[in-house]
Amino acid sequence: MKYAMIIVLSFFVFGCDKNDDNVVNDVDESSLYFPPLNSEEWEIKSLSELGWNTSELGGLLTYLEDNNTRAFIVLKDGKIVIEEYFGNNIFGTSPFNRNTQWYWASAGKTLTATLVGIAQQEGLLNINNPTSTYLGNGWTSLTSDKENMITIKNQLTMTTGLDYIVSDLNCTLPSCLTYRTDAGQQWFYHNAPYTLLEKVVENAAGINYNEYSNQKVESVIGMNGQWISQGYNNMYWSTARDMARFGLLILNKGKWSNIDVLSDTEYYEQMVNTTQSLNPSYGYLWWLNGKESIMFPSLPNSFNVALSDNAPIDLFAGMGTNGQFVEVIPSKNLIVIRMGNAADNSLGLFTFHNEMWEKINLVINE
Which of 10, 29, 92, 198 has the fewest CB atoms nearer than 10 Å to its CB? Predict the structure, then answer.
């Protein structure tokens, strides 16, 4: 009920102990399987082999289908345990299947966070530098001294201090980016400063964002997605299996099998742990479970609840509009992927997420 009340108030549309310690449970890397590149081959592990509750699977899948899910995948040790598709593609013209592309929405922020880390390890940028180093002066309407207080790290952590009482939180024009408080003094889920991270990476790398994504992540781990501009936003599209590949990369701390993709371990640990005291449940564009408080999108207030009561406390996740989820649970070597339309209720994304995990727990029997 507490989640329902919070989400109704927020009108939201878009791992670890229960404390502030930045600790991520170790992953058993030796047990992880990585599917081959450029192939549909992917090893499967059965529920019965894992000792999971097969009798509860039907209830989980019915709940997902009733709530407008299109794709649902669970990986254990990198192997597929559950893979189900429902309904039709985005155009309603053909059934959704493993080859259907779908939007990640704000779950794609996690891919951007990873790309920023890669750009830093390559010496192309430093997240502690002012954003104006890469976008030039005047990317906001702030005075130069206030603008230069905003760093890439502030963009990664939603702490730019830019005013959120604006007509369009997606607008990246300088006229839309106005002063509210000094950088680092407020947390608010402001999409525009995030979107500009893509231009930061492009300018630092000297190549197109899609090309950089492909060179540094997609081609290395076998993803086949793309960034597509929609108004001010740049949204990532891929198959559910592509999203699962990305989740597996992050579960293995930035390595694909024995290939280093994000090798900056300090950046990785910061990315998937609490990065500031204003919202302990937020890393570098990743949502974190198991913390003592959270600030939800669209609300400037903090609530003394965790991201999800039902999910494992060390879960960290990319979460996007209408329930696009890429979820990593290091303690269980699990990846959970959900793509689809908005759940068929009025309680919002976080409540649906919590209910989904209630059903998942009945299956994994832990």
Answer: 92
State the average pLDDT over residues 115-122.
Answer: 98
Q: Is 175 exposed, middle or buried (0-12, 13-18, 19+ CB in 10 A)?
A: exposed
Report, as an integer, the average pLDDT of 201-227: 98
Cα–Cα distance list, 318 to 111, 176, 232 (Å): 9, 26, 20
Nearest to 337 by CA among 358, 321, 323, 352: 323
Residue 135 backbone phi and psi in degrees, to 5:
-105, -10
Q: Could you tell me the pLDDT band of residue 217, with boundaries at 50, 70 and 90? A: very high
Asked if 330 contacts 25 with a C-beta cutoff of 8 angstroms, the reply is yes
How far is residue 285's CA from residue 155's CA, in Å, rounded to a whole number?
9
Q: Mean pLDDT for the chain?
A: 92
pLDDT given at position 28 = 60
Residues 292 and 18 sit within 8 Å (Cβ to Cβ): yes
C-alpha 361/C-alpha 56 separation (Å) is 9
